[in-house]
Specification:
Layout: H1 7-22, E1 33-34, E2 44-46, H2 48-56, H3 60-70, E3 77-83, E4 87-92, H4 94-107, E5 121-125, H5 137-155, E6 159-166, H6 171-184, H7 202-212, E7 216-219, E8 222-225, H8 233-254, E9 261-264, H9 265-270, H10 273-284, E10 287-290, E11 293-296, E12 307-310, H11 319-331, E13 336-342, H12 347-359, E14 369-373, E15 376-380, E16 383-385, H13 397-404, H14 406-414, E17 422-425, H15 426-430, H16 437-455, H17 459-462, H18 473-495, H19 499-518, H20 526-550
Parallel strand pairs: 5-6, 5-13, 6-9, 13-14, 15-17
Antiparallel strand pairs: 1-2, 2-4, 3-4, 7-8, 10-11, 11-12, 15-16
Helix pairs in contact: 1-3, 2-3, 4-18, 4-20, 5-14, 5-18, 6-7, 6-8, 10-11, 11-12, 13-14, 16-19, 16-20, 18-19, 18-20, 19-20
The protein binds one RNA strand through helix 2, helix 6, strand 11, strand 12 and helix 12.
Length: 558
Amino acid sequence: MSVVLNFKSHISELFAHALREVAPDQVGATILIERPKQASHGDYACNLAMQLAKPLKKSPRDIAQVLINALPKSDVIEKVEIAGAGFINLFITKAAKQAIVHAVLHAGAGYGHLHLGGGRKVQVEFVSANPTGPLHVGHGRGAAVGDCLCNVLHAAGWNVTREFYYNDAGAQIENLMRSVQLRCKGVTPDDPSWPEAGYRGDYIGDVARAYMACETVEADDQRTTGKGDVDDVVAIRHFAVAYLRREQDLDLRAFNVEFDVFSLESALYSEGKVDETVSRLIASGHTYEQDDALWLRTTDFGDDKDRVMRKSDGGYTYFVPDVAYHLDKWRRGFVRVINEQGADHHSTITRVRAGLQALDVGIPKGWPDYVLHQMVTVLKNGEEVKISKRAGSYVTLRDLIDEVGCDATRYFLAARHPDSQLVFDIDLAKSKSNDNPVYYIQYAHARISTVLDIWGGERLELLQADVGLLDSEYETALLQQLIDYPQVIENAAQDLAPHLVAFYLKDLAAAFHSYYNASRFLVDDEAVKCARLALIAAAAQVMNNGLSLLGVSAPEKM
RNA sequence: GUGCCCAUAGCUCAACCGGAUAGAGCACCAGCCUUCUAAGCUGGGGGUUACAGGUUCGAUUCCUGUUGGGCACACCA
């Protein structure tokens, strides 16, 4: 019997065939195969007959019967039923389900890898914090969601580039430099002369101390040494950015997030890309001068008002280098770009897209894609935490990692739909109890590791297992979970929704825990033992694969 | 005032792009360890999917409006 790995697409093909036969003029109909919520409705269901009822002017149940008669033979299908208003319910044979065990064990870490992306390039830009302070919780959410999204896209067959863009030019850097300079001179934020917009966190003092002590920091493949000269604003600026870039890098490393490319706003200026973009926009005819400023008519492209490009003081507004940056991405061959950002930046989307359209260089209208995550609030002892010692006005990512660990932080920040506001409950994330989903999943993995350890046999033996012995309701449920995994990857990649992986893993762990409590694995009957161990080894493999997408470890012991 | 996001069990959240009886966990109640990890499992109660309309065979899902919460609305970034 041939092994079918993706029942959904297999069944979909069967129906496509039947549709061509039964209603050749309706081949445009979308064939949707779904998993019914109720087991009595089969393993998969198709609603095609109901869709066709109107155009064919026949009752759905009649059409369903005709479709079923035209379905090609398939040895993975046990039976087909018509139910309800005209649903076609399909039942998969036990043997086909059981075969998943060997499929998983053979594929190993590759199980769940798909070819949806076809090796095409996609760039995901995320975090992109300004180098003006430690990363905060919001950046943490961006890092967790973005990194997990990259992993999911990679698993789905995309060639992923992770990119971090940092604004090392512009007003906020001047502000940073001035704040550090003041600290160098001994002025502190509680001084009345401290600028309203100045940065007040303790870390500014650290930067100042390091600069005055002529320390050397390494960041972005460069070594920068403090000059100790309080009047050299260029040196202070350079050092402060390098110092904070290094600090952010360390935070990211502690969070197990790595980037392939760092892009600098300042480079867009020094390489002439900003000027070129401005020239192109002027040439495009979408700009005009007014009040000593240069404007882009973004209203031509759906914005609610036009935007200033060049201020009356001669400087460019933020969105100009942003457009230049995205033009650069396009030219680097990224036909697909996804920007993961905090929702507080959503207003830039229209502007950037408008700017790119105005360039008229063939960039598609909706390019690039965006994933916006909503705000994070941090809770401890039932109360909102708003400050940290180091940063002052916000909770840092480092605080969370130090307090609850990398695994739990990543899990909680990635396990929610990005569109929903997130409450990060520190007490929950720290709790080593069954209300903590991270431990729940990891515990399942550790239990399997222990059982396999006690067994002590060679993994290769499991490949010989007679999986036909896996027949209980618990085993069937677990088999079904393993079968569903690739579909989860597909959905997560398509919807840019990495949280689906987190929910899936909870379900997978639940199916295993139930099985564990209901059955013994290390039984006397060699064949049964082997079959059961093969199944849980496969489950552990999928847990491993899924957890690695989340960037969460899969411990052998707990 | 305008735009974007959200609203589902007491709490935290799901629901496979419109499907069949809306699901988990926590909390509450009642059970399960001389057995491979009880950080686990089994059972129970708990819902007008914020509200009001609309679209159709069928709506938590799509459309309109209302209410409530968040975010953004600079010649800031």
